[in-house]
Amino acid sequence: MSAMTFLSGTFCGKEIIIEKILKKSSYNILSDQDLIDRASQLSGIPGQKINNVFFNKTSVFNRFTHEKERSLAYLRLALAQALSGNNFLIDGFAGVLIPHSVSHVLRICLIADMKHRIAQAMKEKRMSEKEACAHIQKDDDVFRVWIDSLYKMSDPWDTSLYDIIIPTDKMTDKEIISLIDSNLKSEVIQPTKASMKAAEDFLQAAHVEVALSNEGHAVDVSVRDGHVTLTIHTNVLLLSRLEEELKSIAGKVEGVNTVETRIGKGFYKADIYRKYDFQVPSKVLLVDDEREFVQTLSERLQMRDMGSAVAYDGESALNLVAEDEPDVMILDLKMPGIDGIEVLKKVKTTQPDIEVIILTGHGSEADKEICMQLGAYAYFQKPVDIDLLSQALKAANKKIQDAKKQKS
């Protein structure tokens, strides 16, 4: 049986349509949240981080961790595994991840004109017209960013993305369901040998992408009949060595016959390809109001393949901690506003798994004793030998990784 995907603008009546379809059919519904939960189970990545993929909330550490690309790889795997079953109705953003070569999926878009949507929002949410307009615009912007991140298209309602686009404000529910039924019965949407093979290729590509991401790599993956093509979009200094490593990893995935690599359109840009090195910390937050010092330190850590972000005051640091959850923080004590000791207290209270290394030019023995009692991992005075600091960072990272293994 064919599968269906539903994408819709908010306040276009999607929920009622899906409810009525499910009542008269044997389809099982899969929402974005269902797929996020599956992807989280497969990967061990918290569901909220995977959910951020839809909203394009990219961590400041992402160019070092490839966290977004890894989350997307597991989301594709969860979706591809679901497609190997029968009778699925996929509701949400994830549906657009299915390649168009999988032709037994009916891609449905429900939309209405803005005037109708605003009226519905005002009725359902008791909003003013201005509030309703802003709410809908915000929802559409999220969808627009998601589609643009995948297909470089500015219009989320582009007809090339869907098999049918249904104006819900111009048709009755009965007419909409009848139209969907007739399309599902169309010969074009029926499973064929080629379409089922395309679904298998999609699943295998997802397995390859996950295997690569688990080794720290982020490249595009496509598969056809066991032949894997890997596309490298960012510049790399030792291309042949990277190609050999990618081929070796992909070649070990079950069912892969051959692997080739290609250079993508973005290869000649200034960005440098970075493999995520699990042995060194890639999410280090540097907190210090001495801008020149902390920027230099960040550059020196990056030269040692340690990913770092910078905050110049305690309040900014706490905001970054809440949004991006660094693994290790290097923290100065004397800063305007919230000082280092107060930041340390708050971090260790709210997120005790973050390791905090104190690096200060103004601390005393009493300060050191207080910091260690509060849970600091290490305490250094400026200036510090970069190799000594690097050793402490690697040791803190090992402690974090060991703790994660014990939890899993």
TrEMBL record:
Pfam families for this protein: Cytidylate_kin2 (PF13189), Response_reg (PF00072)
Keyword annotations: Phosphoprotein, Two-component regulatory system
InterPro entries (alphabetical): Bact_response_regulator, CheY-like_superfamily, P-loop_NTPase, Sig_transdc_resp-reg_receiver
Keyword presence, Phosphoprotein: yes
Response regulatory domain location: 283-397
UniProt-listed GO biological process terms: phosphorelay signal transduction system
Positions where 4-aspartylphosphate occurs in the chain: 332
Entry-linked PROSITE patterns: RESPONSE_REGULATORY
Name the UniProt record assigns to this protein: Two component system response regulator
Species classification: Bacteria, Pseudomonadati, Thermodesulfobacteriota, Desulfobacteria, Desulfobacterales
